[in-house]
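Q: Structure for this?
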Amino acid sequence: VEPWRPEPAPGPSTQYDLSKTKAALLLAVIQGRPGAQHDVEALGGLCQALGFETTVRTNPTAQAFQEELAQFREQLDTCGGPVSCALVALMAHGGPQGQLLGTDGQEVQPQALMQELSRCQVLRGHPKIFLLQACRGGKRDAGVGPTALPWYRRWLPAPPSVPSHADVLQIYAEAQDSSGRGPPSGSSHQADILTVYAATEGYVAY
Amino acid sequence: RDEKGSDFIQTLVEVLRANPGRDLLELLTEVNRRVCEQDVLGPDCDEPRKACLEICSSLRRRLCLQ
């Protein structure tokens, strides 16, 4: 085993080149989410300060979430110029299984929205950032440490750990992947993606 | 979220505005530290709660937004 060595100073090969166009899409449900407008303004201002060409859409329906993402991808693919980076912020109420709720109350899966950009030709090999401000369930975190819970509640046994739906899907996907197919060529569709959720799976986002 | 926006977005903006040239993953770690430190009393909570971000990355290089 080779000994660990400190990483070399960041250079062109170790850092994404963001010298070309950077594009941002902010989709936010404001209706019924008091204070959400502050997030849109703050994030929009930040994106512009960082040099992103920024598109803001408020109060999308579930279908509009999908359509806006599709349109965003199309614009990037047809603009003709190189694109360095894309940032997408999705802000809405969230359902118990991590769905996003449009203004019409209908649900849309954030994964479906994120996959849209994975199909974007000009973003191949370039970073795609997703920010999700939404609840991912109804659980609330009481925290840990001396002030988190009364002593008698700290000794209660934790609920048994059962595989989640995502765990089952992952096992299924891994079984499919190991079923004899050869290695894929080219780079992965799943590479160069950074997703940041406001809450862990199953929990409320504040 | 009522008064000034959500903890996540507002902290993210604050940290990135102060350090736009630093590695985004490092900055997100700092955002998470700050968010986790906060006690939140939501509209239907009777006692303070905690929040924690989930950061999923398949980045292959450092990412500095400026």
